[in-house]
Amino acid sequence: MPVLRLVHPEPAVGPTEARRRKIGLEKVAVDFATRGKTVRAVDGVTLEVPEKQFLALVGPSGCGKSTILNMVAGLLAPTEGTIEYDGAPVLAANTRVGYMTQKDTLLPWRTVADNIGIAFELRCRKASAGERRERVAEMIDLVGLGGFERHYPAELSGGMRKRAALARMLIYEPETLLLDEPFGALDAQLRLLLQQELLHLVERRQMTVILVTHDLEEAVLMADRVVVFTSRPGRIRATRDIPFERPRNAMELRFRPEFSAIHEELWNELKDEFAASIGGERGAK
Ligand SMILES: Nc1ncnc2c1ncn2[C@@H]1O[C@H](COP(=O)(O)OP(=O)(O)OP(=O)(O)O)[C@@H](O)[C@H]1O
After folding, report:
1. Measured in angstroms, how far is the CA atom of residue 15 from the centroid of ligand 1?
2. What is the chain's Cα-based Rg?
3. Which element (helix H / strand E) includes 58?
4. Whether the Cβ atoms of residue 62 and residue 279 lie closer than 8 Å to each other
5. Closest-lying ligand 1 atom to the alpha carbon of residue 68
6. Is the CB of 274 under 6 A from ligand 1?
7. Which CATH architecture has domain 19-95+208-285?
8. pTM for the model
9. Which end of the chain is more exposed for a tag (fewer CB within 10 A), N or C?
10. 143 C-alpha vs ligand 1 centroid, how far in Å?
11. 3-class secondary structure per residue, 212-256
12. Residue with the nearest Cα to atom 14 of ligand 1?
């Protein structure tokens, strides 16, 4: 099985080191008008993400995690409150972030190489065809999709599509990654491999990351800080610093007793919210 090939990460920066604020949400609320009703999806969320932090958002389905990513990406404006990126309000599409949405949104009528190449053209409009070819080949190699350049998305497995989407995002060289369930549909082994390689990549490029995941284990393995949301409307229920050093070895970390202790602590917060969200959905029917 091909895996991401990355050089060894540079020395880590400790998670507790004081850093500049990269992303700020201040008293953010979001309402959606749907079927003649107004639904509050997110309520009173204040959150700061320092640069180079790896933040994970967890919470029950429908609590507004994707909505938060959409706002940081500048695709949705909050109903109340403000979103800032590098000290300026986000008022339009935020071109400094790479956004990997839950659906991979690869263009079905384009090959893998073209899907990635189009993203490069959007970023570097004046690049030559040779430069485009070179960068696309580099990205394909990086995500281990060599040999599949001319395949169309429908000809790829779920994991390969995720890799293609990852390459398409990385060719922009974003300073910040917004990842919405990036490994959701993958089998456990591939998931672990990609988690590990993503950790290396983030470390090497010193990126800021917000990861949305349903998988609490994934959140604790990867993040410097985990935020637990309540069921809808999403509010912050708990925030936990994850004290493990970087670079991390996700394969080894999950067997440590400290890992289990933190996982259990966060699960105790989360399980009530899952119960509340299921109760809420039944009540709404
Ligand atoms: N464009 C929209 N119009 C109407 N309602 C919406 C819209 N987008 C999201 N919602 C609603 O807002 C709430 C939050 O949705 P969101 O997708 O952010 O949740 P989530 O936590 O990411 O869920 P999941 O974990 O299932 O992906 C949900 O109740 C959803 O139905």
Report:
1. 30
2. 19
3. strand 54-58
4. no
5. 18
6. no
7. 3-Layer(aba) Sandwich (3.40)
8. 0.87
9. C
10. 30
11. ECCCHHHHHHHCCEEEEECCCCECEEEEEECCCCCCCCHHHHCCC
12. 64
| Residue corresponding to tokens 């999950």 | 254
Total residues belonging to the chain? 285
Please name which of 285, 219, 226, 215 lies closest in space to residue 250, comparing C-alpha atoms. 219
Q: Quick one: tokens of 205?
A: 């490029």
Q: Could you list the pLDDT tens digit for every one of the 285 residues in the chain?
A: 444 444 333 444 444 456 899 999 999 999 999 888 999 999 999 999 999 999 999 999 999 999 999 999 999 999 999 999 999 999 999 989 999 988 878 999 999 999 999 877 777 767 778 888 898 998 898 888 899 999 999 999 888 888 899 889 888 889 999 999 988 767 788 788 788 878 888 888 899 999 999 999 999 999 999 999 999 999 999 999 999 988 888 888 889 999 999 999 999 999 988 877 776 654 454
- What ipTM was assigned to the predicted interfaces of this complex? 0.96
CA–centroid distance, residue 68 to ligand 1 (Å): 10
Question: For residue 74, what is the DSSP state?
Answer: T
* Token pair in block for residue 270: 């989360």
Place of tokens 């109903």: 79
3-state secondary structure of 26: strand
